[in-house]
Amino acid sequence: MSAPPADAVGEAVIDRDGLAALVDVLRARGLTVIGPTLRDQALVLAELESADQLPYGWGVELDAGQYRLCRRTDGAAFANAAGPQSWKTFLHPARVRQWRAERPEGGLVVEADDIAPPRFAFLGVRPCDLRAIAVQDRVLNTGPHPDPVYRGRRSGAFIVSVECTEPGGTCFCVSMGAGPAAGPGYDLVLTELADADGHRFWIRSGTPGGAEILADLPVRDVHETTRATARRAVEAAADRMGRAMPGTDLHRLMADTLEAPRWDDVAARCLSCGNCTMVCPTCFCTTTEDVTDLTGDHAERWRLWDSCFDLDFSMLSGGPVRASSRSRYRQWLTHKLGTWYDQFGSSGCVGCGRCVVWCPVAIDITEEAAALHDWTRREENSP
Hints:
Blueprint: E1 11-15, H1 16-28, E2 32-39, E3 42-47, E4 58-63, E5 66-71, H2 88-91, E6 95-102, E7 109-112, E8 120-125, H3 127-141, H4 148-154, E9 158-162, E10 188-195, E11 198-205, H5 208-214, H6 224-238, H7 250-256, H8 262-269, H9 275-279, E12 286-292, E13 298-305, E14 315-316, E15 319-320, H10 325-344, H11 354-357, H12 365-381
């Protein structure tokens, strides 16, 4: 089927062959395609050589501290909630070498690492993660001190978002205004349908670049029944969120509960392992590490992800500012839901639920926020 001119394309329907063509077209344009695939009993993000590597027919069951793959009754590729990785793995890598130094006889040579990053195409970016990329853009790409590593990887990245029709048991993107419909920021967006009428994708362009790619795909016309079915599927997902934040001003709630006894309760359970910060799609803290070989003639400086749960994170000459797990958990939660607004004008939470799933002791951010909200109401009603 011949495709219409790029400037005439706004929406269409593609089938599974069209999805395969999308991957091929992106790769043919020199983009490194990253998408979900099945590996080690989890759905992980990795480079795709073809659409055959997508997790067709696989879903996930999620709960606090629990992640389990499950077989679906259909062949949907994207009907699964967020996995252990987010796209910050590729835009804000966990390990980056900043420079290396050699000490030849009689001198010192220092070389910065300036290897050009790949040009990425992200396939399957969920609305919550699309919002998370926008949040990190404000911090690392467009703020007063942009990060050159992030900027280099973000520049030219092509984003194919997929609207959520199958939320997980720990999802609460509706509470954070981050889904299940895709917000701005995508080049192309898909809504996947797998029902009695077949396996198909309602695809729309969001940028001229997206329209250009869409024009190269085998497409068919979209009918109003397909649009209506897709919209109903997304609207139904909004009513099936597994979690919800309390319906209150979270910014104000965090500021009003700094001395709540609930912080002692969560501190008794928290391991300060930092899993929540590692899987969070918006956490961005880093540290540096210098390493050398045994001869002392070769040294390197690496930038690594860091966590506000680490005891050394707030270490000063007199010791750590936050020496207790209570203070460290409180710092993370009040920053994520509260003072992030003061710094960046939005919440730092997008409702993906990863911190709930990957907490080894099943601490639930929505449960903690609800407990703090209940405490404030009791305090207000106490004589």
